[in-house]
Amino acid sequence: MTRYIFITGGVVSSLGKGLMAASLAALLQSRGYKVRIRKFDPYLNVDPGTMSPYQHGEVYVTDDGAETDLDLGHYERFTGVSARQSDNVTSGRIYQTIITRERRGDYLGATVQVIPHVTDAIKAFAQADTEGLDFVLCEIGGTVGDIESLPFIEAIRQMRNDLGRDRTIFVHVTLVPYIAAAGELKTKPTQHSVKELTALGVQPDILLCRCEHPLPDGERAKIAAFCNVRKEAVIPALDAKSIYAVPLQYHAEGLDYEVLRAFGITPGLAPDLRRWDEILDRQMNPEGEVTIGVVGKYVGLQDAYKSLNEALVHGGLANRVKVNIQWIDAELFEEAGGDVAARLEPLHAILVPGAFGSRGAEGKIAAIRFARERHVPFFGICFGMQMACVEGARNLCGISDASSTEFGPTDEPVVGIIEEWMSDEGLQKRQDGGDLGGTMRLGAYEAVLRGNSHVAGIYGASHISERHRHRYEVNTAYRERLEAGGLIFSGMSPDGELPEIVERPDHPWFVGVQFHPELKSKPFDPHPLFASFIEAAVKQSRLV
Ligand code: GLN
To answer: Which atom belonging to ligand 1 lies closest to the Cα atom of 381?
Structure first.
């Protein structure tokens, strides 16, 4: 029997509902339950694929090629359960499906309405593919009171009625602000938020109260009384010293216990939290530190590189070192007097991440050149790999006009658009002037690694599968010349057509990958490329 935990947020946004859902799922998992987490996004985009990272943060890509909300990255990192397209739905996608059906005449003359058609679609989404699962956690994006989220709240209200209270619970995440002038924590915003929710027919079972100061017993009792929730189910959620401390902290506050109790389940033995103790021990007691420079485009907003940030932290966990990340705007290196060496010399390794468009590209190429010439560990991801090939072509192969067709027409398309490629579903084609949404090479694709290459050693494998999100490819017409220049194509698609990995054997650590390894890294299972990259940075730190 699958049970549903619905998570809403109140008072303000950015309370960390995603982390809360991920942590609760991890706690239930550590009690032996099978879990899956889903996200409802009330906005009208069909998916976040076409949104700017500044609007939305990172686009998280799943194995099955869905472009999803970055919270799904938290879910995967905390539970190890691979997310799927069916784990993220937006109002846009729901309306798209309904309107397509309406145009086909599927509604047989009926009036199509928010209730029941939209709410039914939301309920169907929540309950799809749940076989064998003990708990499905559904996080509702936005804040209670938003117009956009009303159909979602209505749908979960109905689900409580449909399935009964032993199969559905409501967790509401709120803020208990500290008013410094009065020296007090204030419960009123929480009271108002719960009032708003109950007006929509949803009475929360558990309140998770984000607060900067410990919640005194009196305040806890007050919230319980006004919000109609048991006092023990008013859980204080103080800011944690690390996101990986959150499951342990919530457990200590009784969250998983209260969730089970709300379902009428008698909590069995204490959960096995050794995995989280070990992660936290490694993070809190590092034996050294390294500084990595990430030379990118969206450096003003760390959410734009959420998974990358975490994967670097995981690489640190694998090596028991603290990883300091310096976010460097690539455009700095394009300005007159933008001294690349002065900025990059103190770093122990350099990473150029994924990006779109030409802005900052020349700065990235300058950073890659520096890393190559100075033998500083270099990791190029997606766009970073493409620019490593352009850099090599220009500076080692004498192709001075080497470029990417992403930046406009060029006579030397070292990186170019692909119009056809093979996937598990057969031949994929892209048309000029076609849709931008969902038309990249997306999701998991296999790569075959060259024997004796650096990457084959790092992976300890000859075949790998990694997630992709890109439109352009390194052009194999330049392969021979690039290899003669020392940039070896050490990973290729199984049909040998698409370059997946390049590396330099004459360099301590120089790897470029066309895919996004950061999407698959976990704190308890750091990605081998990140573990190895940070290990190289540790070695470099002993030299500088
Ligand atoms: N803009 C490049 C492409 O579309 C790289 C994409 C990326 O880095 N994710 O191929």
So the answer is: 8
Can 209 be counted among the known catalytic residues? Answer: no
Residue entry with tokens 């915003």: 189
The predicted model scores a pTM of: 0.92
514 neighbors 474 (Cβ within 8 angstroms) = yes
Q: 109 in the Ramachandran plot: left (φ > 0), alpha (ψ -120 to 50) or beta? A: left
Q: Which two tokens stand for residue 55?
A: 């609007």
383 Cα to the center of ligand 1, angstroms: 5
pLDDT value, residue 435: 61
Tell me how far apart the terminal alpha carbons of the chain are, to the nearest angstrom.
58
Query: How many residues can be counted in the chain?
Result: 544
Phi-psi region of 39 (alpha: psi -120 to 50; beta: other; left: phi over 0): beta
518 is catalytic: yes
Asked whether the beta carbons of 513 and 308 are under 8 A apart, the reply is: no
Can you state the angle between helices 17-29 and 255-262, rounded to 10 degrees? 80
Calculate what percentage of the chain has a pLDDT beyond 70.
96
Q: Is 354 in the pocket of ligand 1 (CB under 6 A)?
A: yes
- Report CA-CA distances (Å) from 533 to 116, 204, 237, 255: 52, 45, 35, 37
pLDDT in tens, 318-373: 999 999 999 999 988 887 666 888 889 999 999 999 999 999 999 999 999 999 99
Residue 460 CA to ligand 1 center (angstroms) comes to 27
Q: How far apart are CA 132 and CA 495, in angstroms?
A: 36
